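Researcher: Quick test of sequence recovery. Tokens follow.
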């Protein structure tokens, strides 16, 4: 697949995945189309040599794995990890606001979002809605309005003269999106959701909406931009880019290898949930792949996890925010992320292994270390390594504007990272 075709497929994947629920559904659909079998955690599993399987939890996290040949587990599992969530604005449980003749919804900031870019954007709404059916059964469906239905207008500079001097944004009072004029009778969000569910799902009539998890998102589609098409611009590159790359690589893995892709929710808020990386999801699945505890330890000690999450590219306008010797650049290959305080799980052995993979794939590779006078973010890498004891390398595609409503990557970097992860899934021997 060419860089152009890969980026178009990535753009389609991102457009289909405005929330972690939708990202998981899109991953699931593509895996099913590729011959993977869906498993239910509540049922017994009959795993077979050569089988390909997937399992989801909370509709927002997914693990896909292929068993490989008869002795593949003894050679170790090739694991790739990413996360399905991104910073966003989530609708509150009782959100309706009627202010100055306008109907708005109160929101809560999810994760470490850059808030200023959310203003003056065409926003839509998507997520999961739970309801009681006419038969009294509680069920859930995904919902996506798709069209722009909301906006957060900026206050005119004439009324906010100091805005360009860095005035703070109050999430409680400044961020409620505007959806419509207030009407009599008053608008009702649950009625709006019921109508939308009926449009999207033929079996969703006569519902009693009980609850929801809804997020606003930018409707501007992903795009390859720049005079020479050097850049790829989209929402949620952190971390749907890695989810897509992991999926694409997995689908080209040789059938004899034992391979696994884990895409978990809640990374942006610490991963501590039943479906997050700091929860038991991956351990539960691995315990069913390798039921014997002693053998499972042996398998994991022969395995390796590539934790794929975006890296900070050196911004030409803010180059001083980087260590002079560790400023990754766009379109210069994947980045090995290193931190001596274990905010990243990379060590010299796993970094050396990843460098050798890049060399084998004829792909350039870079390193990132945060400035010594700045704090460092983290990933699912240290969390998973500490829970499983598996050797781990933290890597990612270099990007600008991480945690903005719209982020920027190099147009060649998704292809570079895909090539390396294909080599990883297909490599004959791990370290």
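Model:
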């Amino acid at each position: 697949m060419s860089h152009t075709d890969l980026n178009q497929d990535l753009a389609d994947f991102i457009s289909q995945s405005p929330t972690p629920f939708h990202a998981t559904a899109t991953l699931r659909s593509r895996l099913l189309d590729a011959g993977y079998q869906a498993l239910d955690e509540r049922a017994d599993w009959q795993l077979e040599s050569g089988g390909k399987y997937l399992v989801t939890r909370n509709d927002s996290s997914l693990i896909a794995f292929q068993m490989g040949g008869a002795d593949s587990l003894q050679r170790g599992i090739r694991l790739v990890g990413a996360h399905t969530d991104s910073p966003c604005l989530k609708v509150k449980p009782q959100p309706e606001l009627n202010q100055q003749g306008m109907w708005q919804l109160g929101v809560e900031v999810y994760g470490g979002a850059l808030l200023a870019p959310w203003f003056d954007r065409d926003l839509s709404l998507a997520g999961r809605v739970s309801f009681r059916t006419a038969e009294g059964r509680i069920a859930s469906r995904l919902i996506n309005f798709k069209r722009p239905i909301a906006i957060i207008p900026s206050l005119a500079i004439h009324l906010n003269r100091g805005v360009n001097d860095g005035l703070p944004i109050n999430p409680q009072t400044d961020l409620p999106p505007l959806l419509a004029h207030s009407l009599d009778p008053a608008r009702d969000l649950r009625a709006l959701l019921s109508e939308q569910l009926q449009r999207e799902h033929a079996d969703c009539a006569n519902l009693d909406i009980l609850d929801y998890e809804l997020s606003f998102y930018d409707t501007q589609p992903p795009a390859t931009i720049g005079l020479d098409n050097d850049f790829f611009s989209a929402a949620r590159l952190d971390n749907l880019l890695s989810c897509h790359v992991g999926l694409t690589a997995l689908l080209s893995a040789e059938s004899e290898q034992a391979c696994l892709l884990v895409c978990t929710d809640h990374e942006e808020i610490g991963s501590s949930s039943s479906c997050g990386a700091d929860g038991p999801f991956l351990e539960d699945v691995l315990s069913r792949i390798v039921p014997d505890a002693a053998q499972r330890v042996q398998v994991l000690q022969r395995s390796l996890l590539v934790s794929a999450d975006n890296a900070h590219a050196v911004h030409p306008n803010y180059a001083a925010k980087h260590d002079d010797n560790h400023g990754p650049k766009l379109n210069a290959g994947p980045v090995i992320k290193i931190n001596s305080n274990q905010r990243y799980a990379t060590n010299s052995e796993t970094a050396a292994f990843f460098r050798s993979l890049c060399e084998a794939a004829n792909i350039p590779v870079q390193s990132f270390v945060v400035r010594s006078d700045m704090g460092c973010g983290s990933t699912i890498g240290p969390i998973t390594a500490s829970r499983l004891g598996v050797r781990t390398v933290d890597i990612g595609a270099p990007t600008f504007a991480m945690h903005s409503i719209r982020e920027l990557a190099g147009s060649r970097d998704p292809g570079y990272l895909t090539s390396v992860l294909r080599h990883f899934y297909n490599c004959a021997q791990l370290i």
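The chain has two domains: 3-86+235-426, 88-218.
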